[in-house]
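Example record for the data management plan.
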Amino acid sequence: MFQKLKKRWGIESNFQLAIIFIVFAITGSMSVKLGQPLLEFLDVSTERFGSFLYYLLRILLIFPLYQVLLVFFGTLFFQFKFFWEFEKKMLRKMRLYPKEKDSKSK
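Corresponding structural encoding:
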């Protein structure tokens, strides 16, 4: 399983794979942890918006925070290139980032 990930992500070592997993774990935890004060600052609560809208707003606010933190922590762990390419690929799939220009079509 890990060999498939290493090949798919273009990773050479198990150490780099472990660092990438650590960055994903820290980023996920930190985005949820930092998201709560951000929601409180913006006065977003279930009492004010109801449960459904609250959780929708929470997801919409935490998503960009997660993206920024992923690149930030990736940089701190010397994996900027991997996480920057990962971000661009994910944003392209959601059509939020322009497609790569094909170098053969020039």
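Summary line stored alongside the record: The CA atoms of residues 34 and 94 lie 24 Å apart.
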